[in-house]
Design goal:
Layout (H helix, E strand, L loop, with lengths): L5 E4 L9 H16 L3 E6 L8 H13 L9 E2 L4 H13 L3 E4 L3 H6 L20 H13 L5 E4 L5 E6 L3 E6 L4 E3 L7 H11 L2 E7 L6 H10 L6 E5 L2 E2 L15 H6 L4 H11 L7 H7 L9 E2 L5
Parallel strand pairs: 1-2, 1-9, 2-3, 9-10, 11-12
Antiparallel strand pairs: 4-5, 5-8, 6-7
The protein binds glutamic acid.
The site of glutamic acid has 7 residues, from loops.
């Protein structure tokens, strides 16, 4: 692997990309290319909703917009050994513990006074061996195993985002391996970003709150921390995150409404204050001026 640090786009192949996803991908590509970084692609396909067919359609749509990437696409479904090695390392350092809580247990447990709702209250952090056996037996009856949580030791972590500015997030004992054995998003994202030599992360701002946890994990594993750009989501007219039900939102839907790829490109580009119908034109004009407000997309019905 080359030592040039890269930007990346890491979609989950659980549907066709809509204009909001395409816009984030375009910004990620332009930030990387304009910073003279490489740009890599990763398929976050551990999700049960991931489908091989969407891998192809997503890559085809990105390429149609003129977004190019270096090297092979990385698939998380082929990275089990790398994740397991990191889990073993954390276990060896006594940084993980089994958690037997169900969602309802967490919801009903009293949280510490400064913790936001939904934070893990540490119920299983210091159990005796006997209590652990009871926990395992309880989950066996529910047909699942324990999750593994990270034993964290700071309450909050602050970082500076290139778009959103200073952001402080609560760090609870978050899950790194789910009860069904699937590696959790925060773990795999951090391990893959290090593996792919990612130095710049551009993604939608619904992930802003995950970033302090990811930085915490990077520090623990002695990985480098990239620069972050969290860009506002694209929303429908009601201000809700754009989705399939909003009408024609993908390249395919929009082409059925008579819009060519360059029409869609120009529309996305205009939402970023740039007049361009192709990727090279966009790159030429791009100056890292990123919106702070969501883009309201009125989809043709
Ligand atoms: N796979 C995530 C998504 O499609 C993005 C994760 C990331 O960029 O870290 O929303």
């Amino acid at each position: 692997m080359s030592s040039v640090r890269v930007g990346r786009y890491a979609p989950s192949p659980s549907g066709d990309l809509h204009v909001g996803n395409l816009r984030t991908a375009l910004i990620a590509w332009a930030c990387a290319r304009k910073s003279d970084l490489g740009f890599v692609m990763r398929m976050e396909d551990l999700d049960e909703r991931a489908r091989p067919g969407y891998v192809d359609s997503q890559l085809r749509d990105l390429a149609a917009l003129g977004i190019d990437w270096d090297g092979e696409v990385l698939f998380q479904s082929q990275r089990a050994e790398a994740y397991e090695a990191v889990v073993r390392r954390l276990l060896d350092e006594d940084l993980l513990y089994e958690c037997y809580c169900t969602r309802a247990d967490i919801r009903d447990a009293p949280t510490a006074s400064h913790a936001p709702p939904g934070s893990y209250p540490g119920t299983c952090r210091d159990l005796s061996e006997y209590e652990r056996e009871l926990g395992r037996a309880k989950l066996e009856n529910l047909n699942r195993g324990p999750a593994l949580r990270l034993r964290t030791n700071i309450g909050t972590l602050t970082f500076v985002d290139e778009v959103c500015g200073e952001f402080t997030g609560h760090i609870d004992d978050f899950v790194v391996v789910r009860g069904d054995g699937v590696m959790a998003y925060n773990l795999v994202a951090v391990v893959d970003d290090e593996f792919q030599n990612v130095g710049q992360i551009v993604r939608a701002d619904d992930l802003l709150e995950s970033t302090p946890r990811q930085i915490y994990l990077q520090n623990l594993l002695r990985y480098r921390t990239p620069t972050y750009f969290h860009v506002p989501l694209v929303v429908n007219e009601k201000g809700q995150r754009l989705a399939k039900r909003d009408g024609a939102v993908t390249l395919k839907d929009l082409s059925e409404k008579g819009m060519s790829v360059s029409d869609v490109f120009a529309l996305i580009s205009r939402s970023l204050g740039i007049d361009a119908a192709t990727a090279p034109e966009f790159l030429e004009a791009f100056e890292f001026e990123l919106p702070r407000e969501p883009w309201v997309f009125q989809a043709p019905q």
